[in-house]
Design a protein that fits this description.
41% of the residues lie in helices and 10% in strands. It is flat. The chain has two domains: 37 residues, no CATH class; 42 residues. By secondary structure, it is mainly alpha-helical. The chain has one helix and three strands; from the N terminus they run E-E-E-H. It has a three-stranded antiparallel beta sheet with strand order 1-2-3, with no helix packed on it.
């Protein structure tokens, strides 16, 4: 078992490497920065073959709602960016 409560992590941003305190000298004492990122779970693909026509139409409606939500978020971000650009151009 590795005791990390008394260890301090040091970040070296240039080399994209994380150095860790390792009192037992296990391994090389380095972690890749990618190891700290949460792992994305692959999206489950729905089996469309077993879905009824009604279920497929409901699924399309859900997807269209999500597309609308994403487009709204894009619009808000674009207007915020445009506002910031116009502010700093003065």
């Amino acid at each position: 078992m590795k005791l990390l409560s008394s260890c301090i992590l040091f970040f070296e941003w240039v080399g994209q490497t994380v150095y860790e305190c390792n009192p037992w000298n296990l391994g090389n004492g380095k972690l890749d920065i990618d190891d700290l990122e949460p792992q994305k779970k692959p999206k489950e693909i729905k089996n469309l073959e077993i879905m009824s026509v009604e279920a497929l139409n409901d699924y399309i409606a859900e997807l269209e709602e999500e597309i609308s939500r994403v487009r709204s978020a894009i619009s808000l971000k674009e207007s915020a960016r445009d506002g910031a650009e116009s502010f700093f151009k003065k």
